[in-house]
Amino acid sequence: MFSSFYEKQKNLLRVRRSIKRLIMMGLDALFLPICLWASYVLRLSDWWPSDYILPNWWLFPLISVAGVIIFAVNNIYLTILRFAGAQTVIQLFRSVVMLSVMLAVIGFFVVEQVIPRSIPAIFLLVTLTYVGGTRFFYRHYYQWVINNLLPYEAVAIYGAGGAGVQLAVALADSEEYKAAAFIDDDKHLAGSIVQGIRVYSPASLPDLEKRLNIKRVLLAIPSASPSAKRQAVNRLVSNNIKVLTVPSMPEIVTGAATVDLLRKVEIEDLLGRAPVPPREELLESSIKEKSVLVTGAGGSIGSELCRQILSIMPLRLVLFENSEFNLYQIEQELSAIIEERGLETELVPILGSVCDFHRLETVVSHFSIDTFYHAAAYKHVPLVEQNAFVGIENNIRGTLNACTAATNHGVSRFILISTDKAVRPTNIMGATKRFAELIVQAQAAAGKGDTIFSMVRFGNVLGSSGSVVPLFRRQIAEGGPVTVTHPDITRYFMTIPEAALLVIQAGSMAQGGDVFVLDMGQEVRIQDMARQMIQLSGLEVRDEANPDGDIEIVFTGLRPGEKVREELLIGDRVTGTRHPLIMRAMEEELSQAEIDTYLKELKDAALTNDVAKARAILANAASGYKPAGQIVDCLSSSS
User: Fold this and answer.
1) Residue 79, domain extent
2) pTM > 0.70: yes or no
């Protein structure tokens, strides 16, 4: 019996909107004359004041037709009643006032039997009661059915601010979730009522979980810093509660997302930091209305650099990329942005390798490059260890080619994208990147042209192809185990957009030979990151303390050339810059003659594939390079 009633209410709510409008128009046409009759009754204290009604009988069908027309003109019938709010009240009030004014004009200037002057005012109040009551009765009936007859999941909203209130309003009409409680860190809000929902402190969460059967919390603090979000999420996952979050405030403000668009909390939301607004003059000075070249344009950093550069409206953006697929992807994406925003930037996709000096130099010359961002590099530590001379050729020779092309053709600024692995490296990749830095410094010291050379060094970026985040995400999806190389291994992390913006600003501050180091914030222990990602997936870590958990973390041992802890500075000579997150380091350099000698020796070692000799040469050139582990190059006889 209850099931039958439930189905009838459900079907009633799903009647076509056009039919609902016709029903509402019919009800208004029927009840507006009754409202007029009720006005006479209230004024004259007579159930049938025939002396006033009969002479003016035609007013009743007129008020019916005129009322429906006025309501239609004011879009009353287009309003979705379950979303009715203050604007709906204003529309209704305006419509009823217009109808009452019409009645007053007719009463004073048209009818033979004078209508009492108070009738239009009484009609206004009675009609407002009718139209407002019927609309809001339906609205609350709809919500009553959703909240009491339809199955739903009770959720709590973390954050009783603006975003939380908007989310609660959106959930009021949801058939899937019902907001049963607000949770907020503000102690002054505890116990208060917001949008009809009580606010609790985070300490009340275990009790709410049992009493209200809350298994899911919606994180509605889009403007909070990552550290604040991290603290909130840690409280929630410790209670084995699933967490969803609303989009970030920039996404909401720009219209890219709405506050009710829920998604899983990702590790990127928690590892970032509060952004520092970029300095517009630093962004524009090297890019706006200039011809810009980015090598490695399809890579993680290169592609984000291209996106940020395009938004600053250069005259031309040249994408230089060795991978056909990566070049296709970034070219298609940027072309769509140019078309959508109506930009006038010329986009040039060039397929080529930085090891091909002739092609690279031709590109620099042909497109009159003003600013050159060199992001092309092989960066995966184990792969470069296994393919040593390919890494040396691409990272070292490729950088030399880029610098030479920039000098030969009057490029204004050249910026090398470097890595924290270049500091006291333990692997060939890091040593080659340190050698690349030395090449850039030597080019700046030589002063053969007008090019201002600089480099920007930073750590891992979240979501890049070499990041552990995609690996952990895949391993969790496959049911584990999640593999971490060492229990104490730590890394610095930064979001790709933040890194790209800082690179652009750093390059604009260069004076020649600068080594810019980005402030990466706090180190993150990879084991802790793995645990947090497992918990954010709604799962539990399986270990000695929790043998019935879902996913195990397995320590596999350091890979060839891998360090437990990365560094950003070689020495301690560092000064600040105009940007609080960009530092300038003073480090030892090599002369061009020394570099030429090392390059010749590396070339000779490559001819015989002598990896041991190459590692010795790199150790002499790149101060602090201490190879960790045995040679693992795939073609070396020593491996």
Assistant:
1) 2-148
2) no
